[in-house]
Design a protein that fits this description.
The protein has about 425 residues and is mainly α. The chain has 2 domains: about 5-165, Alpha Horseshoe (Serine Threonine Protein Phosphatase 5, Tetratricopeptide repeat), CATH 1.25.40; about 230-420, no CATH class. It is about 80% helix and about 0% strand. It has helices spanning about 5-15, 15-30, 35-45, 50-65, 70-80, 85-100, 105-115, 120-130, 135-150, 155-165, 170-185, 185-200, 205-215, 220-230, 235-260, 265-295, 305-330, 335-345, 345-350, 360-380, 390-420. Helix 4 (about 50-65) packs antiparallel against helix 5 (about 70-80). The radius of gyration is 26 Å and the shape is elongated. The two termini are about 35 Å apart. The mean pLDDT is about 90.
Length: about 425
């Protein structure tokens, strides 16, 4: 075996990807037709997020050996890094067709099915991998994740128990066990596994995200919210959209009934206010509890940079809204009070900016929030002057803003739901 290739693959397995790239390039300088070297180079470049070069080498590996599964596997891994999951799925299916006895390929397929909320297909792929290699770690963990999403917590717990017994020092397995316990409503026990996962692998994002949720779940209000979030996460994107739109249409119908049925109005209005409170909790609680962790001297270290930025944006918006509301309540200015209410509603889009993926979805959400903020500031500034002193060119946009802004706030929530679900390709 070529020494450069041998060192390159060893360095790749050790996670020393920059050094692996150097050795593999030396090998390809000697023999440019080595398909395996191209494939391993693509994998290392993907870890370094050099996606254009990685794609080129994966495709070159396939071109040199189209009937070998490894090149297609490398391309699948590259496409996963680029968040092009449909292309990744097509590549891994081709790898499985060429080599149906490699458990790792079925693990990759299972992970891709999970990203698309295809729980049963993910479970089937993981089970196929375990038929080939019964103790395959990736397939075992993905099987447990699929079982949790399908609501079979007992089977998921048993699967994770077996995995931990086999590999008690595997960080990913501990993190997965933590999420399994979170789904079972056991945040304290989950936190122990997340801590162990981070001890074993400090940069494991899956564990860091889990311990943040476990810390927030110490509060009984967020514990109930987390149960709701985890439950709805089992649904497909289309189903979640159906719940969101159905709730909006339903509350409009109940409101109309309350206005037309005085005898039932107290009960109906109570149901509506309860529903609105629940909506506000589900919408704001993740960012609000991130803000509480941001203010905690221990909790702040668990938050990601994006969560810290999101908490900062929420804090600034909250301080501004409360300040404006206090001033409005101390005056008799109706326009200022309306602007203050809109500033409170501005918390809704502002809290979702950093829930969107980096790139154009986050930029779009930030742009929407900025436009709404500008509208609120326009109303607040206009309220400082008597209506008679407003120039007609100013009075017209103020009037339009009063009419449009409440609807724009509602529309921003639909935009946020859409943008949060977008995964930009790289």
């Amino acid at each position: 075996m070529n020494p450069q290739f041998q060192r390159g693959t060893l360095l790749y397995q050790q996670g020393r990807h920059q050094e692996a790239v150097g050795e593999l390039r030396l090998r390809l300088a000697q023999e440019s037709g080595d398909s395996l070297a191209h494939g391993f180079l693509a994998l290392s470049l993907t870890e370094l997020e050099q996606f254009d070069d990685a794609t080129e080498h994966a495709q070159r590996s396939i071109h040199l050996a189209p009937d070998e599964a490894f090149g297609h596997y490398a391309l699948a891994r590259v496409m996963i890094g680029r968040q092009r999951f449909d292309e990744a799925r097509a590549a891994i299916l081709e790898a499985i067709r060429l080599d149906p006895y490699e458990a790792n390929y079925f693990g990759i397929l299972a992970s891709l099915e999970l990203t698309k909320s295809r729980w049963r297909e993910a479970l089937a792929a993981a089970n196929q991998g375990l038929e080939i290699e019964p103790e395959h770690n990736l397939c075992t963990n993905l099987r447990a994740q699929a079982l949790v999403k399908l609501g079979d917590r007992a089977a998921a717990a048993a699967t994770m128990g077996e995995a931990l017994a086999r590999q008690p020092d595997d960080a990913y397995t501990h993190a997965n066990q933590g999420w399994t316990l979170l789904n079972s409503g056991q945040p304290r026990q989950a936190a122990e596994h997340f801590r162990e996962a981070l001890r074993l692998e400090p940069d494991l994002e899956w564990a860091r995200a889990g311990i943040v949720e476990a810390l927030k779940a110490r509060n009984f209000v967020y514990r109930w919210m987390l149960a709701w979030f985890l439950w709805t996460s089992r649904f497909t994107s289309g189903t979640r959209w159906g719940i969101f739109i159905g709730g909006y249409v339903g509350q409009r119908f109940v409101r109309q009934m309350a206005e037309n049925s005085p005898d039932y109005a107290p009960l109906l209005w109570f149901l509506l206010y309860t529903y609105f409170a629940f909506c506000l909790l589900t919408w704001l609680s993740p960012s609000f509890f991130n803000l509480l962790l941001r203010l905690d001297r221990f909790g702040r270290h668990a938050l990601s940079p994006d969560q810290i930025r999101g908490a900062n944006v929420l804090a600034i918006t909250l301080i501004g809204a409360i300040s404006l509301l206090v001033v409005a309540l101390g005056s008799e200015n109706g326009l200022l009070f309306f602007a203050a209410l809109m500033a409170v509603l501005l918390l809704l889009p502002a809290s979702k900016i950093y829930d969107c993926d980096a790139g154009w979805p986050r930029q779009a959400m930030a742009g929407i929030t900025f436009v709404l903020l500008a509208a609120v500031l326009l109303l607040a500034c206009a309220s400082a002057l008597p209506v008679k002193e407003l120039h007609p060119l100013v009075l017209l946009p103020v009037g339009l803003t009063i009419l449009v802004l409440p609807w724009a706030m509602i529309a921003s929530q639909f935009a946020a739901v859409y943008l949060i679900g977008v995964t930009p390709k790289r």
